[in-house]
């Protein structure tokens, strides 16, 4: 019974996405094209974030801790 | 929070008008939606141009391809690529009298709204929230209908002539005297078509060398009449008295553009209720300005006659003013009287002049007799002269319905534009996909609404417009409100943050008024 609730809610979210991006008024083949493009772009964004964000965060953290800590890191 | 205004005692009752601002996120998402549609529009146009897809809109024949283009492709871009996709919400054929409930013929489209076929089924008893039936006189039974049927059997349906030739019936004279008495003016004249009343009579009143000051959101008939007249037209911001005063001052001080001669006439064009916004004109202030700067006022009461005022006499009675202050009172019989046609009321000299010089009187066929009888009967009913209190009860029912409906919608959290007392209720939708979705969902739930989009409204402010009627009972309104609530939750239309933008008003100072906004 709860599974139906979740399914309805997800369908409602999909309906909101269709309304906001105006794919509600597009024909089925246009809609598939739009979904493909959107999913591709979102996947690329997520992948880029996964690959690059941890490294950048770590470098930024080191940079700022060097300024505020004031102690040079030992090279050994 | 209702913004109450007391402008030096000009207003005898509070003037509550609000236009809540568009939420920023909604505006951005609306533009995103239009962007997606534009891209797909270009793609489809490209496919049509290169014959990958069959072109179903009008194009020239093969032999004419080398000629000067007949159809401006880019102007119809919006029409082809958005309007066509959601076209099933408009031009719906109804097959019964458009009263509080209406029957509609069902249609389906198998090629995405380029063509429609009727399934043959009739959808019955749809609650009608779209007809301009303010006092409920659109009926096919009752005293109005009986009187009209009697006149039809006596005079027939056609008049076959213009007013000046053989089309002036005694019914028309009776109607005009009645209209003059109803409005409280000296004399009135009736025309066959409301649009033609405006567009054909403004050219008769003003010409070259005159100035027309017209509200931003005036109806197409007023704009057409103003342009046809050849006068100079200047626009002031919607219902904004500071803007109007600035224009009047400039006109008096600087005169005509090159020669600096004084203007022959200055005519202010306003409407009683603006049907797209639901706002009511600030008539006391307009009249005060008109008297100060000695100009003339043309008031188009198409939607407000019969709908405002304690006894239905329109916006002049609503504000408690005298009809003699308005120089030209124009209105239509289409909305509150359940008939067709328009009228102009004013001083006797003005109406006698219009009888000779109006284009509509000379060239247009006069009103049809059964229609005239419908107007006469309904007007007598509103005035109470038929011996019953039906008219007064209807006017009061409309006012109650208006207040109730607007209050409930605001409480639910929708953004509603306009004045608290106007029976026209615009509910903001904003996003283009929601225009089509709202129309369809409401029809599924047996409620007929009118949704409005781009050319009639600014591009992001699309809306659904409800027209309340005295024929709507409390139960019908409750049903409608319940369905609107459901659809509002389904489509996420409850944008209001209950933060009403305070109206930009400053106290009207008769003597020194330097502060103006540009």
UniProtKB/TrEMBL annotation, chain A:
<protein>
    <recommendedName>
        <fullName>Serine palmitoyltransferase small subunit B</fullName>
    </recommendedName>
</protein>
<keyword id="KW-0472">Membrane</keyword>
<keyword id="KW-0746">Sphingolipid metabolism</keyword>
<comment type="subunit">
    <text>Component of the serine palmitoyltransferase (SPT) complex, which is composed of SPTLC1, SPTLC2 or SPTLC3 and SPTSSA or SPTSSB. The heterodimer consisting of SPTLC1 and SPTLC2/SPTLC3 forms the catalytic core of the enzyme, while SPTSSA or SPTSSB subunits determine substrate specificity. SPT also interacts with ORMDL proteins, especially ORMDL3, which negatively regulate SPT activity in the presence of ceramides.</text>
</comment>
<comment type="pathway">
    <text>Sphingolipid metabolism.</text>
</comment>
<feature type="transmembrane region" description="Helical">
    <location>
        <begin position="32"/>
        <end position="53"/>
    </location>
</feature>
<dbReference type="GO" id="GO:0017059">
    <property type="term" value="C:serine palmitoyltransferase complex"/>
</dbReference>
<dbReference type="GO" id="GO:0007029">
    <property type="term" value="P:endoplasmic reticulum organization"/>
</dbReference>
<keyword id="KW-0256">Endoplasmic reticulum</keyword>
<comment type="similarity">
    <text>Belongs to the SPTSS family. SPTSSB subfamily.</text>
</comment>
<dbReference type="InterPro" id="IPR024512">
    <property type="entry name" value="Ser_palmitoyltrfase_ssu-like"/>
</dbReference>
<comment type="pathway">
    <text>Lipid metabolism; sphingolipid metabolism.</text>
</comment>
<feature type="transmembrane region" description="Helical">
    <location>
        <begin position="9"/>
        <end position="26"/>
    </location>
</feature>
<dbReference type="GO" id="GO:0046513">
    <property type="term" value="P:ceramide biosynthetic process"/>
</dbReference>
<keyword id="KW-0808">Transferase</keyword>
<dbReference type="GO" id="GO:0005789">
    <property type="term" value="C:endoplasmic reticulum membrane"/>
</dbReference>
<dbReference type="Pfam" id="PF11779">
    <property type="entry name" value="SPT_ssu-like"/>
</dbReference>
<keyword id="KW-1133">Transmembrane helix</keyword>
<keyword id="KW-0812">Transmembrane</keyword>
<dbReference type="GO" id="GO:0004758">
    <property type="term" value="F:serine C-palmitoyltransferase activity"/>
</dbReference>
<comment type="function">
    <text>Component of the serine palmitoyltransferase multisubunit enzyme (SPT) that catalyzes the initial and rate-limiting step in sphingolipid biosynthesis by condensing L-serine and activated acyl-CoA (most commonly palmitoyl-CoA) to form long-chain bases. The SPT complex is composed of SPTLC1, SPTLC2 or SPTLC3 and SPTSSA or SPTSSB. Within this complex, the heterodimer consisting of SPTLC1 and SPTLC2/SPTLC3 forms the catalytic core. Within the SPT complex, SPTSSB stimulates the catalytic activity and plays a role in substrate specificity.</text>
</comment>
<keyword id="KW-0443">Lipid metabolism</keyword>
TrEMBL record, chain B:
<dbReference type="GO" id="GO:0005789">
    <property type="term" value="C:endoplasmic reticulum membrane"/>
</dbReference>
<dbReference type="GO" id="GO:0046513">
    <property type="term" value="P:ceramide biosynthetic process"/>
</dbReference>
<keyword id="KW-0012">Acyltransferase</keyword>
<dbReference type="GO" id="GO:0030170">
    <property type="term" value="F:pyridoxal phosphate binding"/>
</dbReference>
<dbReference type="GO" id="GO:0004758">
    <property type="term" value="F:serine C-palmitoyltransferase activity"/>
</dbReference>
<comment type="similarity">
    <text>Belongs to the class-II pyridoxal-phosphate-dependent aminotransferase family.</text>
</comment>
<keyword id="KW-0256">Endoplasmic reticulum</keyword>
<dbReference type="InterPro" id="IPR015424">
    <property type="entry name" value="PyrdxlP-dep_Trfase"/>
</dbReference>
<keyword id="KW-0746">Sphingolipid metabolism</keyword>
<feature type="transmembrane region" description="Helical">
    <location>
        <begin position="24"/>
        <end position="43"/>
    </location>
</feature>
<keyword id="KW-1133">Transmembrane helix</keyword>
<dbReference type="InterPro" id="IPR015421">
    <property type="entry name" value="PyrdxlP-dep_Trfase_major"/>
</dbReference>
<dbReference type="InterPro" id="IPR004839">
    <property type="entry name" value="Aminotransferase_I/II_large"/>
</dbReference>
<feature type="domain" description="Aminotransferase class I/classII large">
    <location>
        <begin position="124"/>
        <end position="484"/>
    </location>
</feature>
<dbReference type="InterPro" id="IPR001917">
    <property type="entry name" value="Aminotrans_II_pyridoxalP_BS"/>
</dbReference>
<dbReference type="GO" id="GO:0017059">
    <property type="term" value="C:serine palmitoyltransferase complex"/>
</dbReference>
<keyword id="KW-0808">Transferase</keyword>
<keyword id="KW-0663">Pyridoxal phosphate</keyword>
<keyword id="KW-0472">Membrane</keyword>
<dbReference type="InterPro" id="IPR015422">
    <property type="entry name" value="PyrdxlP-dep_Trfase_small"/>
</dbReference>
<keyword id="KW-0443">Lipid metabolism</keyword>
<keyword id="KW-0812">Transmembrane</keyword>
